[in-house]
Design brief:
Distance between the termini: 34 Å
CATH topology: Glutaredoxin
CATH class: Alpha Beta
Structural class: alpha/beta
Order of helices and strands: EEEHHEHEHEEEEH
Helix content: 25-40%
Strand order of the largest sheet: 5-4-3-8-9
Number of domains: 1
Largest sheet: 5 strands, mixed
């Protein structure tokens, strides 16, 4: 695990600026004014990660309906994420935390130092940049869509 701890709900979300699948930097601070879901995942093209992100893809309307921008983040290189996004047709941004390796995952307390990848951590940041919900699941355990739906309902309440 990372030395950093998972940010506390109610505190400002850690900043991040990462390249998307085309190398364009995406900064969390530039997205203020609308809520954002930051979804860390271990590896592109792996079984559980593909299942989770395809489920988000197939249910992206739940995020769109409440104006939440979805960002999926891994330590994979940008080109790997681009190939995976094209293969799976993801309608949301995939961001590369490849270099400096795992810096964003470390800031969110979800970087596994022993294996060099992000754990399954999801964070819902409100329009003011405050963390409103988070979940971090152990290795091998997918995050249920119902948890996202509950967090989105709470945010829009």
């Amino acid at each position: 695990m990372s030395g950093a701890s998972v940010p506390v709900v109610g505190a400002p979300a850690p900043g991040l600026t990462l390249p998307d699948t085309h190398g364009t930097p995406v900064a969390l601070s530039a997205l203020r004014g609308a809520p954002v879901a930051v979804v860390f995942f271990p590896f592109a093209f792996s079984g559980i990660c593909t299942g989770e992100l395809c489920e988000l893809r197939d249910n992206v309307a739940a995020f769109d309906e409440v104006g939440v921008r979805l960002l999926a983040v891994s330590c994979d290189p940008m080109f790997t994420l681009r190939a995976w996004a094209e293969q799976e047709g993801f309608p949301f941004d995939l961001l590369s935390d490849f270099w400096p390796h795992g810096a964003a995952a470390r800031a969110y307390g979800v970087f596994d130092e022993s294996t060099g990848h992000a754990l399954r951590g999801s964070f819902l940041v409100d329009a003011d940049g405050v963390l409103r919900w988070s979940v971090v699941n152990p290795r091998g355990q997918a995050r249920p869509l119902s948890a996202y739906r509950a967090a989105l309902a709470e945010l829009s309440a």
